[in-house]
């Protein structure tokens, strides 16, 4: 998500942002006493508003990286910031690997079966590029206060950098547990002494950044249209609620309470900045990008520039689309997910491509020799790419529906069952009146009620409470966010993950469970072998 002022950038603006950040890389010193004329340096970077904005743009850019350096290689270094489906969907009961054959893309098989070497490319790039984003964020955070740009812009840009540092660390702690915490780039003498923080310490670091970001960032409505998609106060508060939620599966929840999640989500709701998009079918269309429902999404733009580390398009939808049309065929929704939808739920046909559905005007015959389940992810295939290397589809990371359902779960856990039911019913009501795509087409995006039979998605009963209410909320989360990469983390935080795994896979996952009591039993990914060795970091269990 690299941009200048627009959230739909050109490659030139991204290159400028990266070139500006390259001058901040430690290791070389200018031995001249005078500052070179016409040169951007660390000393003058934040004296110019355009340069300062581009410095932050270069942090966003890392969040949008699709691939590492091994272009065209199916075992190449695919970056998990945007390919979160490789973890959040594929490693659960919501998806099977798919692809051209059972052996296609070995790295995904390793993830699916919890037979993961430290060299696994998606795991390695999740680690490496998260720290790249953190380093770029630290450049802004540690230097912008001394700048001479407008105070309001300075505060906003620092808030964006703090939010993004928290975003990268959140991705790390979910996958790897406690990690090294950097508030600044370590010096050569400090680097050999890098150590891993605990999971609790890492979460505390993230919370600190998100709270600071929320104080500095504007509300969504304060941004001009070209800047929609930048981090906002609502995004910071919403992520803080999610961060705390993920710690509440244990007895002490790292000393957090459900009341905190309730209060934070209430703040977002009461801000008046967000609402459910009237038509669920529009959320993942281009018409739904940066909509009233969006708290944070990764921004992409159409590009013909081809593969490259600074691509402004995404291949995430290419990887998940039908091999018979324009995709590679991975991440196939399971029959278990399909069966989770209640009869006539319009969300099912927005989430699932079936055999011979017409999507993007293209007939989608499903060849079971190139598909594991008979289904594809419609949410990732709604926008056709301008070129196979660079689809323009934004990736939604936090939606208002999640705020409502997080608050519902917090309400259910704090003896507010009636309020929890009301919140869930808001989500169900929106789904019930959304356009339901006809069986073989995507359907109209007209904001008209669906022709669903009477009794479709009935409201939860007013008196529902206890475990039955929690089950209803978790069900609603699964169908509302189907194929949006949240399933793995929902299962882990609620202690249900191991039960859905086949016995052999469960045994391997259990061998990698963290021994820290600050979270539910959580299987961890292996730390990048190179960094584990060079930083002398303790490897995660079982590797």
Please name the CATH topology: Serine Threonine Protein Phosphatase 5, Tetratricopeptide repeat
Radius of gyration: 23 Å
* Alpha-carbon distance between the two ends: 33 Å
The spatial strand order of the largest sheet comes to: 1-3
Total separate domains: 1
**Relative strand content:** 5-15%
Largest sheet features? 2 strands, antiparallel
Basic shape: globular
Which parts are unreliable, with pLDDT below 50 for 5 consecutive residues or more?
A: 1-38, 67-80, 303-311, 438-449
Helix amount, in percent? 25-40%
Write down the secondary-structure element order. Answer: HHHEHHHHHHEHEHHEEEEEHHHHHH
**How many β-strand runs?**
8
Please write the CATH class name: Mainly Alpha
- The CATH architecture classification is Alpha Horseshoe
Query: What would you call the structural class?
Result: mainly alpha
Task: Explain what this protein looks like in three dimensions.
This protein has one domain: Serine Threonine Protein Phosphatase 5, Tetratricopeptide repeat, CATH 1.25.40. The strands form four sheets. A two-stranded antiparallel ribbon has the order 1-3. Strands 2-8 form a two-stranded antiparallel sheet. The protein is 40% helix and 5% strand. Mean pLDDT is 85; it is low at 1-38, 67-80, 303-311 and 438-449. It contains 18 helices and eight strands. A hairpin with a 2-residue loop joins strand 5 and strand 6 (362-364). The chain has 543 residues and is mainly α.
């Amino acid at each position: 998500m690299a941009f200048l002022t627009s959230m739909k950038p050109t490659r030139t603006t991204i290159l400028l942002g990266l070139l500006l950040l390259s001058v901040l890389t430690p290791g070389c010193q200018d031995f001249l006493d005078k500052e070179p004329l016409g040169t951007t340096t660390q000393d003058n970077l934040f004296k110019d508003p355009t340069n300062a904005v581009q410095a932050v743009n270069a942090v966003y850019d890392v969040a949008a990286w699709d691939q590492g350096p091994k272009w065209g290689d199916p075992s190449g270094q695919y970056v998990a910031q945007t390919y979160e489906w490789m973890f959040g969907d594929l490693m659960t009961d919501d998806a099977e690997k798919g692809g051209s054959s059972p052996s296609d893309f070995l790295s995904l098989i390793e993830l699916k079966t919890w037979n993961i070497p430290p060299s696994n490319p998606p795991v390695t790039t999740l680690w490496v590029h998260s720290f790249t984003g953190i380093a770029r964020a630290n450049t802004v955070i540690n230097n912008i206060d001394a700048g001479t740009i407008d105070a309001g812009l300075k505060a906003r840009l620092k808030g964006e950098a703090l939010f993004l540092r928290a975003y990268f660390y959140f991705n790390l702690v979910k996958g790897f547990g406690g990690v090294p915490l950097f508030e600044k780039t370590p010096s050569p003498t400090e680097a050999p002494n890098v150590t891993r923080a605990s999971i609790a310490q890492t979460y505390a670091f993230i919370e600190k950044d998100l709270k600071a970001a929320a104080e500095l960032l504007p509300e969504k409505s304060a941004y001009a249209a070209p800047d929609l998609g930048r981090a906002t106060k609502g995004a910071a508060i919403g992520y803080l609620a999610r961060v705390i939620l993920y710690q509440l599966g244990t007895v002490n929840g790292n000393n957090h309470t459900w009341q905190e999640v309730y209060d934070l989500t209430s703040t977002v709701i009461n801000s008046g900045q967000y609402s459910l998009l009237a038509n669920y079918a529009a959320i993942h269309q281009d018409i739904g990008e940066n909509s009233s429902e969006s708290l944070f999404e990764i921004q992409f733009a159409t590009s013909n520039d081809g593969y490259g580390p600074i691509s402004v398009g995404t291949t995430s939808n290419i990887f998940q689309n039908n091999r018979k049309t324009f995709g590679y065929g991975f991440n196939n929704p399971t029959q278990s997910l399909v069966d989770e939808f209640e009869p006539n739920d319009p969300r099912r046909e927005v989430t699932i491509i079936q055999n011979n559905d017409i999507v993007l005007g293209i007939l989608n015959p499903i060849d079971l020799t190139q598909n594991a389940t008979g289904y594809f992810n419609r949410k990732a295939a709604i926008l056709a790419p301008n070129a196979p290397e660079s689809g323009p589809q934004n990736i939604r990371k936090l939606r208002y529906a999640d705020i409502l359902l997080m608050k519902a779960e917090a309400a259910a856990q704090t003896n507010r069952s009636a309020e929890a039911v009301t919140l869930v019913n808001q989500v169900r009501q929106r789904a019930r009146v959304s356009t339901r795509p006809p069986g073989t087409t995507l359907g109209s995006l007209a904001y008209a009620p669906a022709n669903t039979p009477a009794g479709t998605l009935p409201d939860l009963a007013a008196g529902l409470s206890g475990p039955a209410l929690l089950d209803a909320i978790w069900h609603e989360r699964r169908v509302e966010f189907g194929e949006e990469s949240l399933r793995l983390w929902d299962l882990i935080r609620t202690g249900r993950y191991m039960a859905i795994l086949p016995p052999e896979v469960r045994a391997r996952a259990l061998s990698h469970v963290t021994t820290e009591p600050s979270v539910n039993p959580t299987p961890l990914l292996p730390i990048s072998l190179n960094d584990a060795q060079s930083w002398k970091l303790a490897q995660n269990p079982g590797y």
